[in-house]
């Protein structure tokens, strides 16, 4: 979780949690934030914006006060996109490893194993990963004081929350948070290599503990139908537990997840790496935001009970 010393002291503090989801997930976040801004709800004003993977890249842009209404997020050209061959297998292996970590008394051991696979995987170069348009767009920007990005040390398995006090370039920290094992290479920071914060959790919602009002945006359906593969059921149960922990600690929480139209577009989450879906994903999310407005506003503008 965020260090208590970094939590704003005022009880009405608000946090925005943005989960992982690849380029289509970035479009989901961006479209929702655009639609809510159309409705008068500016999530950029959060006291804390914490992003994981796709959510880290979007979170940094929001914290920099970039207006999401200008259109769909930048699409990484195919020349710098992850290799398609083996991506599905990499995702399957990643889910299995992450699910094992959920049930382990020592999850860092599982995360180290995933990190080792990431370091050994054949991907584009680290320089290419850092040069992709979605990351390059924030290169050289100052670190916003209200923004954090999550990552995992590939060698030690340590969970890391990057912030302004770490003196790490914003683009490099976000690239490490979005370094999907087997798809993008680990990112070098201060002598270590870091991989996607989604290895620990696709949301890392528990990092918002201590905030009175929390909006959580998940790029995936958080239900666990019986027909879903066991790793997905395990991981979704863990995500729901994170959210309930926030509520148990007194936070008002509103969770936004994709509606049926978005799920149909993405094959229920199986096509989140498909750049071709980005424009339509943005449009659908912006439309969904209007239906989410009242629920979000009820939490965002509420007066917390001490």
Would you mind describing this structure in some detail?
InterPro entries: Acyl_Trfase/lysoPLipase, NTE, PNPLA_dom. Residues 16-209 form the PNPLA domain. The protein has helices at residues 22-38, 54-63, 87-102, 107-120, 126-131, 133-136, 170-177, 230-248, 260-265, 278-300; strands spanning 14-18, 48-51, 147-153, 159-162, 187-189, 192-196, 213-217, 252-256. It is built from ten helices and eight strands. It has one domain (22-175, 197-256, 293-301). Strands 1, 2, 3, 4, 5, 6, 7 and 8 form an eight-stranded mixed beta sheet that branches. The protein is of the alpha/beta class and 306 residues long. The longest helix has 23 residues, at 278-300. Residues 7-11 have low confidence and may be disordered.
Question: Which characteristics define this entry?
Answer:
306 residues; 8 strands; 40% helix
């Amino acid at each position: 979780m965020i260090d208590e010393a970094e939590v704003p002291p005022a009880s009405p503090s608000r946090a925005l949690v943005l989960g992982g989801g690849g380029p289509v997930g970035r479009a989901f976040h961006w479209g929702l934030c655009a639609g809510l801004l159309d409705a008068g709800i500016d999530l950029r004003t959060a006291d804390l914006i914490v992003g994981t993977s796709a959510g880290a890249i979007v979170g940094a842009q929001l914290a920099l006060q970039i207006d999401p209404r200008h259109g769909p997020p930048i699409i990484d050209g195919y020349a710098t996109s992850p290799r398609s061959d083996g991506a599905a297998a990499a995702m399957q292996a990643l889910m299995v490893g992450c699910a094992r970590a959920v049930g382990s008394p020592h999850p860092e051991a599982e995360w180290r194993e995933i990190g080792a696979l990431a370091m050994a995987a054949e991907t584009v170069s680290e320089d290419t990963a850092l040069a992709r348009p979605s990351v390059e767009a924030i290169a050289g920007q100052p670190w916003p004081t209200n923004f954090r990005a999550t990552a995992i040390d590939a060698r030690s398995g340590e969970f890391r929350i990057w912030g302004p006090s770490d003196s790490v370039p914003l683009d490099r920290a976000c690239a490490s948070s979005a370094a999907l094992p087997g798809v993008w290479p680990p990112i070098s920071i201060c002598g270590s290599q870091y991989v996607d914060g989604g290895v620990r959790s696709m949301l890392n919602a528990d990092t918002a503990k201590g905030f009175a009002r929390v909006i959580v945006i998940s790029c995936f359906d958080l239900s666990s139908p019986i027909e879903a593969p066991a790793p997905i059921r395990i991981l979704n149960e863990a995500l729901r537990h994170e959210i309930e922990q926030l509520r148990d600690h007194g936070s008002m929480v509103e969770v936004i997840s994709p509606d049926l139209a978005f799920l149909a577009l993405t094959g229920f989450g199986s096509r989140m790496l498909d750049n071709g879906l980005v424009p339509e994903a943005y449009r659908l999310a912006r439309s969904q935001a209007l239906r989410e407005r009242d629920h979000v506003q009820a939490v965002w503008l509420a007066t917390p009970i001490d």
